Amino acid sequence: MRLQNIPPEYQRALPILKKIEHAGFEAYFVGGSVRDVLLQQPIHDVDIATSAFPAEIKEIFPRTVDVGIEHGTVLVLENDDKYEITTFRTESTYQDFRRPDHVEFVRSLEEDLKRRDFTINAFALKEDGEVIDLFSGLVDLENKVLRAVGDPHERFHEDALRMMRGLRFVSQLGFELDEETFDSILENHELLAKISVERITIEFVKLLLGKHRQQGLEMFVQTQCYLYCPELQNAKEALLRFANLTDKQIHKEVHAWVLLADQLGLSEGEIRPFLKSWKCSNDLIKKTQAVFAGLQFRKKAFFTKQLLYTLGEEQALLAEELLPYFDRTPQLEKVQQMYQELPIFSLRDLAITGHDLMTAFNQKPGKWLKDVLSACEEAVIDGKIENKKEKLLEFGRVFLAEY
Fold this sequence. Notes:
Elements: H1 8-22, E1 27-30, H2 32-38, E2 47-50, H3 54-60, E3 64-68, E4 73-78, E5 81-87, E6 89-91, E7 103-105, H4 109-113, E8 124-125, E9 131-132, H5 137-143, E10 145-146, H6 152-158, H7 161-173, E11 176-177, H8 179-188, H9 197-208, H10 213-222, H11 236-243, H12 253-264, H13 268-277, H14 282-298, H15 305-311, H16 313-320, H17 332-340, H18 354-361, H19 367-381, H20 389-401
Parallel strand pairs: 2-5, 10-11
Antiparallel strand pairs: 1-2, 1-8, 3-4, 4-5, 6-7, 8-9
């Protein structure tokens, strides 16, 4: 098979291939980008594989960075572009199911492609557009089948994360797992215990954001991979409920975690330890908690001014965007307008400060100060009092008299 139209990302990189070939070596575009071109999807990364060894690549190109030279990868800087160029290689046994004991550089493209994970990722593309397909990947693309290259047991023992990658591809592409590949994941799913949580999290989030989330989650459950993911050991039914939510693609990671927390029946306080177990960042955890709280309230009633103020515009809108998953119509413009009409957006906007209160009432700092400011803040948001210094001082005086 030969591509009729070479995408611009490849065209810009063609001089790289030609320089390597002019030096007497082979060079090809490889990996997921070739698959995406064949599926007429956007290209994200351009990876190049070559028969040239790293030292030879460094002789061909004057500007390089040793980003992973021990594994055969050199970063070539050409004009304003950067390309990772990796030497053909074979790999030894994988005692930890994650990394090979050692890597051996070879001159054979076939030996290199044999170590790839799935047939649809084992293509190589020549500079003239010819697709090299040694493992019937084109047939699998046509039939929408995800099949491991060679023996799936060997592939998953080499890197157990490939099982999660396979499930992620099911979700992203809508492909079916080949029967032998499915059986091998089911048999070897416990190997995920050998993989770092961080690596699993990356693949799991991509699975949740796939166009075919339902299919991906069902395979996630059927292969029992969920049993070796943080805090999901008893979550089979919740995961299937998640799979059966409205067939609408999730585009934001925070939405994925909020919906998962909702289906798991977590409380707002349980979200932090749950996401910590997935090694999520504090910022993501904080945002997930806020959007989750907004969603739980919004499923029962419309936002109050106080809740909008607490959430902030961004997080209130993020919560509103989740309503279609619960067969409800979001009112984004109404939420935005209601937020923008709030008299203040933070305590800094209040017309008085703690110093004003201490001066007016001749008192030292204490709990009373925070309580008065909070009462003023709440009264202004609810429209009970104007945000003017004199009126707030009078309000504070009355509040303290009853304190």
